[in-house]
Design a protein that fits this description.
Length: 100
């Protein structure tokens, strides 16, 4: 039985306990944003119903990697815009790119 959006949203909230999301002053309720994303991802997963397990895993990993990269880029852009230093984890990651 495929995971339902409500289940995925609940798992998202659990993950956020360890790594909270700063929703700042967005004019949308947090739970509605979670629900929107959970629904979208569940629909995406359902569209891969006929994929092999390996293809489904690779597709979901590619989507996850793209989102992490996008989040990193947006995070660094935001820090630069406000003249703030990046955190240790981001700096360590970016220092790998600077090495020849």
């Amino acid at each position: 039985m495929p995971i339902q959006p409500e289940q995925l949203a609940a798992l998202m909230r659990e993950v956020e306990l360890e790594d909270p999301i700063d929703f700042a002053d967005l004019p949308f309720p947090e739970d509605e944003l979670r629900g929107l994303v959970a629904t979208h991802l569940c629909e995406m997963a359902a569209a891969m119903e006929n994929f092999s397990t390996e293809d489904r895993l690779m597709t979901l990993l590619a989507v996850s990697a793209k989102l992490v990269l996008e989040n990193l880029v947006l995070h660094v852009q935001l820090l630069r815009r406000h003249g703030l230093p990046v955190g240790e984890n981001v700096e360590a990651l970016l220092s790998r790119l600077r090495k020849p």
